[in-house]
C-alpha cells in the first residue's frame, strides 16, 4: 500500500465510522500520512483523530479508538497503534516498497501530481491563484516556479510582474509571466523573496535558477560558480548526477538483457530512499501550499543523497547473472529517476541523461 492509497484508506475508515453512527463529522477532503515522529512507531502515522476531535465533540484519543478497528481489518495493514494524544501509527505489509515503486513508475515524472484538493492549491473550487511579484529577477523566478508547482496540484494560476521583464531574463533563465506592468490596486505583491546580491545570468539557466530557488525566500542566495562545479559539494550536481546515473543504469541493464520489475529486494530495501520517495507527494503539496519552490529543491537533494549510495548496488557484478532482486533494484532506481526528473522540470531545470 502506497502513501496515497493509505491516505484514501484512512478517509474510508472515517466514512465507515460515520455511516455506522460512531462519529458525527463531515468526512474531510484529505488525510495526511507521514513517517512517525518521536514516540511513534510503524511505517506511517496520521493525525486524522486530532483533526476530527473538535467537530466530533470527542477527545482525539477517543476518535482514534473509534477509527482503529476500521483500519486494522484492511488488507495490507498489519497493525495500528495509538500513541500520544491520538496519533494512529500504522504498520504495513512488507510488499509496500514494491507497491510504491509500481505507483511511481505508473505515473512517471508526474508522480505526486494532485487534483487541486491539496490545501492552498485552490483548484478544487476553480478559483484562480494570482501570484504578483515586484520587478526583481529572483521574485519572478520564484513566482514562475511556484506557479508550476501549484499547477501540478491542480490549481489554476496566473502570474504577473509589476513591470516589463528584462528580455535577458527570458533569454537566459527562461522566465515568463502571464501579465506585465502595473496591477490593479487590489492585487497585492505576494511573492517577495530576498533579492539576489549579484546578477545570476552568467551562471546560465540551470545553475542560475537553482541559485535563486534552492534557498528559502527569507534567505539571501549565494551567486557564485559553486553552482557550476561538478563535485559532491554542489547540491545541484548531486541531484542531476543521481538522475543521470539512473538513466545509465537502465541503458546498462538493457545491454545485459534485463529490465526493471518492481518486487522484493534481498539484502535490504534502502529505507531512507523509500521514505524520501514516499514523501514526494507531500513535498509537492507543501511547496504548493506555501508558494515555496525551495521546499521542492531541498526535497530533491534528500532523494538524491539517499539514492547515491544505493545506485551502485543495482547491476550484477562480475559473472553474476541478473536476478529478481536486480530487476527490483533497477525498478527502484528508475523510480528515483522519475521523481528527480519531475521535480527538476517543475523548477525549470534540465534533467540530463548524461553528465
UniProtKB/TrEMBL annotation:
Classification via PANTHER family: ARGININE--TRNA LIGASE, CYTOPLASMIC (PTHR11956:SF5), ARGINYL-TRNA SYNTHETASE (PTHR11956)
Keywords noted in UniProt: ATP-binding, Ligase, Nucleotide-binding
Reaction catalysed by this enzyme: tRNA(Arg) + L-arginine + ATP = L-arginyl-tRNA(Arg) + AMP + diphosphate
Ranges for domain Arginyl tRNA synthetase N-terminal: 4-92
Cross-referenced Pfam families: Arg_tRNA_synt_N (PF03485), DALR_1 (PF05746)
NCBIfam families for this protein: ArgS_rel_codon (NF045898)
All copies of domain DALR anticodon binding, residue ranges: 239-355
Organism, scientific name: Streptomyces marokkonensis
SMART domains: Arg_tRNA_synt_N, DALR_1
EC number: 6.1.1.19
SUPFAM superfamilies: Anticodon-binding domain of a subclass of class I aminoacyl-tRNA synthetases (SSF47323), Arginyl-tRNA synthetase (ArgRS), N-terminal 'additional' domain (SSF55190)
Full protein name: arginine--tRNA ligase
Amino acid at each position: 500500500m502506497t502513501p496515497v492509497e493509505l491516505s484514501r484508506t484512512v478517509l474510508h475508515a472515517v466514512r465507515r465510522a460515520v455511516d455506522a453512527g460512531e462519529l458525527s463529522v463531515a468526512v474531510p477532503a484529505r488525510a495526511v500520512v507521514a513517517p512517525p515522529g518521536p514516540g511513534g512507531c510503524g511505517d506511517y502515522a496520521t493525525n486524522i483523530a486530532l483533526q476530527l476531535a473538535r467537530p466530533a465533540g470527542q477527545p482525539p484519543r477517543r476518535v482514534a479508538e473509534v477509527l482503529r478497528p476500521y483500519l486494522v481489518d484492511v488488507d495490507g495493514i498489519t497493525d495500528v497503534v495509538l500513541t500520544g494524544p491520538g496519533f494512529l501509527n500504522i504498520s504495513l505489509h512488507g510488499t509496500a516498497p514494491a507497491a510504491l515503486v509500481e505507483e511511481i513508475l505508473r505515473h512517471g515524472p508526474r508522480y505526486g501530481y494532485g487534483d487541486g484538493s491539496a490545501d492552498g492549491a485552490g483548484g478544487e473550487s476553480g478559483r484562480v491563484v494570482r501570484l504578483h511579484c515586484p520587478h526583481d529577477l529572483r521574485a519572478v523566478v520564484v513566482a514562475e516556479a511556484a506557479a508550476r508547482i501549484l499547477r501540478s496540484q491542480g490549481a489554476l494560476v496566473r502570474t504577473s510582474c509589476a513591470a516589463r521583464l528584462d528580455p535577458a531574463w527570458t533569454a537566459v533563465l527562461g522566465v515568463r509571466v502571464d501579465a506585465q506592468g502595473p496591477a490593479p490596486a487590489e492585487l497585492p505583491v505576494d511573492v517577495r523573496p530576498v533579492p539576489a546580491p549579484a546578477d545570476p545570468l552568467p551562471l546560465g539557466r540551470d545553475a542560475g535558477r537553482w541559485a535563486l530557488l534552492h534557498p528559502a525566500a527569507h534567505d539571501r542566495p549565494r551567486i557564485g560558480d559553486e553552482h557550476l562545479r561538478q563535485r559532491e559539494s554542489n547540491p545541484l550536481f548531486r541531484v542531476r548526477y543521481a538522475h543521470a546515473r539512473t538513466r545509465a543504469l537502465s541503458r546498462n541493464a538493457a545491454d545485459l538483457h534485463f529490465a526493471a520489475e518492481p518486487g522484493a529486494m534481498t539484502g535490504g530495501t534502502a529505507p531512507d530512499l523509500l521514505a524520501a520517495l514516499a514523501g514526494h507527494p507531500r513535498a509537492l503539496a507543501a511547496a504548493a501550499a506555501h508558494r515555496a519552490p525551495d521546499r521542492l529543491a531541498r526535497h530533491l537533494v534528500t532523494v538524491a543523497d539517499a539514492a547515491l549510495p544505493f545506485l551502485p548496488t543495482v547491476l550484477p557484478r562480475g559473472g553474476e547473472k541478473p536476478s529478481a532482486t536486480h530487476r527490483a533494484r533497477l525498478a527502484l532506481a528508475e523510480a528515483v529517476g522519475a521523481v528527480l526528473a519531475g521535480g527538476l522540470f517543475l523548477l525549470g531545470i534540465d534533467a540530463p541523461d548524461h553528465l
